[in-house]
Amino acid sequence: MNNGYIKVGMADYKIGTGDDVLVTLGLGSCVGIVLYDKFKRIAGMAHIMLPSSKEIKNNANKAKFADTALDEMLFEIVKMGALKGRIVAKIAGGAQMFSIATKGLTLNIGQRNVDAVKEKLSELRIPIIAEDTLGNYGRTIEFNCSNGELKIKSVGKGTKVI
Amino acid sequence: MNLTTNSYYLDVLKEVGNIGAGNALTALSQIINKKVDMEVPVIEVIETEKIVNTVETAEMLIVGVYVKFWGDISGNIMLVLDKPSSDHLIKILLGEVSDGDFYSEMELSAIQEIGNILSSSYINSISKLSNLNIQMSVPSVSIDMAGSILSVPAIEYSEVSDRIILIENKILEGENEIVGNLYFMPDIDSFKLLFSNLGVPIDE
């Protein structure tokens, strides 16, 4: 049987079950977060752009921000039958694609995104069991709902599984 | 001031793109000693997260040169070349180009310099035209998937606005061996000053 490929765009999240494969292409400073219940084989993948909805005026799209995206996605997978206490997380991304210093201010949004995701997951008491974050290169990630593997592809660095 | 509904503003932005990119391409054409054309600039007002839709696929390998500018107005300029075009450009400049996905230091600085010349001639012409003081950063180069590179301006814009205004110029070298895009992206707050200095009446 062919796996169902489910594409997760920027500032979006999607839920997969069974043999589904959740994919997000070309993560840069954004962070990809997978929440997963391996017994129920229910997973959600989010592709967040910014750390916090509270710092931004235009925050209608909840999937854009680490805090609101995780709240919503967790709510949905629990609604679908995932057990809160069994959910674990895998995260990837948060790179710094360009190093530009302007007026002495280097704003490393990748790092801020990773920090915000970790803080939110710890607040939700969801353990991070694997991560591949920071650095200066982009990542394509694929999460296989049937075995819980997160495949990470980067240009010139091949593929790894976490 | 509603940029998205007033076609007069969009026409002004097209003209800004014409002048800026026109000057940039003249400079490029002089360095590589080849004729470089551009298409009529496209003004796109899109949701920040849709920026990736401006390229074929988010996974496509591209070379991005990113420059920030600030002063009276601020924003970013990004030159995006597909990898074969960038290879070709380096070959013209240095005589040869290495195989594989990545470049040597020398090749990177050649691409960085191309980005520098394009963006500074673009910015200079806008600065002269509008009588605004604009300074720019050293360009930074990244060779990676389109999605990861274009997410950088998308994220920066997301912090102030849910939409991004792209002034996009497609560039074509005469023999079609160099094809790329030049994006001029002033911050949302910069448009008012830019328009008023260009003598464009602003309805509040």
Distance between the termini of chain A: 24 Å
Q: How does the overall form of chain A come out from the CA principal axes? A: globular
Which structural category fits the helices and strands of chain B? alpha+beta
**Mind summarizing the main beta sheet of chain B?**
8 strands, antiparallel
Query: Roughly how much helix do the residues of chain B carry, as a percent range?
Result: 40-55%
Overall pLDDT metric of chain A: 90
Question: Alpha-carbon distance between the termini of chain B?
Answer: 5 Å
Measured by DSSP, the beta-strand proportion of chain B falls in 25-35%
Overall pLDDT of chain B: 85
User: pLDDT below 50 for ≥5 consecutive residues: which ranges of chain B?
Assistant: none
**Number of beta strands of chain A:** 10
Q: Please write the string of helix (H) and strand (E) elements of chain B.
A: HEEEEHHEEHEEH
Write down how many β-strands of chain B occur, each being a DSSP E stretch of 2 or more residues: 8
Strand order of the largest sheet of chain A: 1-3-8-9-10
Segments of chain A where pLDDT lies below 50 for 5+ residues?
none
* String of helices and strands of chain A: EEEEEHEHEEEE
The percent range for strand residues of chain A is: 35-45%
> Main sheet of chain A, how many strands, which sense, barrel?
5 strands, mixed
Tags for this entry?
A: 162 residues; alpha+beta; 10 strands; 18% helix; globular; B: alpha+beta
Structure in words:
The complex is a heterodimer of chains A (162) and B (204). By secondary structure, chain A is an alpha+beta fold. Chain A has 2 helices and 10 strands, in the order E-E-E-E-E-H-E-H-E-E-E-E. In chain A, the strands form 2 sheets. In chain A, strands 1-3-8-9-10 form a 5-stranded mixed sheet, with no helix packed on it. In chain A, strands 2-5-4-6-7 form a 5-stranded mixed sheet, covered by helices on one side. In chain A, strand 6, helix 2 (109-123) and strand 7 (128-133) form a beta-alpha-beta unit. The radius of gyration of chain A is 15 Å and the shape is globular. The mean pLDDT of chain A is 90. Chain B has 204 residues and is an alpha+beta fold. Chain B has 5 helices and 8 strands, in the order H-E-E-E-E-H-H-E-E-H-E-E-H. Chain B has helices spanning 7-32, 83-94, 105-130, 146-158, 191-197, and strands at 36-38, 42-47, 61-71, 75-82, 134-136, 140-145, 163-173, 179-186. In chain B, strands 1, 2, 3, 4, 5, 6, 7 and 8 form an 8-stranded antiparallel sheet that branches. In chain B, a hairpin with a 3-residue loop joins strand 3 and strand 4. At the A-B interface, strand 3 of A face strand 3, strand 6 and helix 4 of B.
